[in-house]
Amino acid sequence: MAITQKNVTAVKADAYDAVFADANTKVDAYDAVFADANTKVDASDAVFANANTKVDAYDAVFANANTLGDEGWNV
Asked: How confident is the model over 12-38, as pLDDT tens digits?
């Protein structure tokens, strides 16, 4: 079969379709990364929620320290 412009165009079109098929896979992978990123954000929120709990506990320690200090001065 002789190589013609039509044949070359058809081969290029097939290659282009293959690239797009791969691009779709990459898009799916990208969506999966974002889904994972959302999980990481949720995990980050959980860390911050825990940090807030720690801050509240720290405030309670200082409130207690202030009370102990006041008691010390009152003695």
From this structure: 667 767 777 777 777 777 777 777 877
Q: Per this entry, what is the length of the chain?
A: 75
Tell me: pLDDT of 72 over 60: no
Asked if residues 53 and 46 have their Cβ atoms less than 8 Å apart, the reply is: no
Q: 20-51 burial, b for 16+ CB within 10 Å, e for fewer?
A: eeeeeeeeeeeeeeeeeeeeeeeeeeeeeeee
Nearest-angstrom CA–CA distance, 75 and 71: 6
DSSP 4-52: -HHHHHHHHHHHHHHHHHHHHHHHHHHHHHHHHHHHHHHHHHHHHHHHH
CA distances to 9, 60, 67 from 71, in Å: 90, 16, 6
